[in-house]
Amino acid sequence: MNVIVLRPYEGIPAHINQTLDVVVTCLQGTGVLTIDEEPIAIEAGSIALIPRGASARSLRMMRRSSTPPSIANATA
Q1: 55 in a domain, yes or no?
Q2: Which domain holds residue 29?
Q3: Is 5 within a domain?
Q4: CA–CA separation, 21 vs 50, rounded Å?
Q5: Distance, CA of 45 to CA of 47 (rounded, Å)
Q6: Is there a domain that residue 3 lies in?
Q7: Which among 47, 40, 35, 37 is positioned nearest to 62, based on CA atoms?
Q8: Contacts of 53 (CB under 8 A, 6+ apart)
Q9: What is the number of other CB atoms lying within 10 angstroms of the CB of residue 42?
Q10: Where are the alpha helices (DSSP H) in the chain?
């Protein structure tokens, strides 16, 4: 398992991953996940599955919320 933490306005450029399915979990803040050129708004609590082979997947965090999530919220 890989864990990637993105700070506000950081991102992962568009790429294709033929090997792995990826689960994105937003614990805090907001962002834009793009899969196959379709932008999807994400916020704290969002979970998304990106299937292997999806073209042009990218992720861009927009802002961080002022209150970090509690452990109960992060694992629910």
Answers
A1: yes
A2: 11-75
A3: no
A4: 6
A5: 7
A6: no
A7: 40
A8: 16, 17, 18
A9: 21
A10: 71-75
CA dihedral for 3, 27, 62, 50, sign (positive or negative): positive
Say how far apart CA 76 and CA 74 lie, in whole Å: 6
CA distance 10 to 76: 25
pTM of structure:
0.69
For the segment 15-63, what is each residue's pLDDT rounded down to a tens digit? 888 888 888 888 888 999 888 888 989 999 998 888 888 777 888 888 7
Q: How far apart are CA 62 and CA 7, in angstroms?
A: 9
Closest-CA residue to 37 (of 20, 18, 54, 49): 54
Q: Residue 44 is encoded by which pair of tokens?
A: 């704290």
Number of independent structural domains in the chain: 1
Q: Does the residue 6 lie in any domain?
A: no
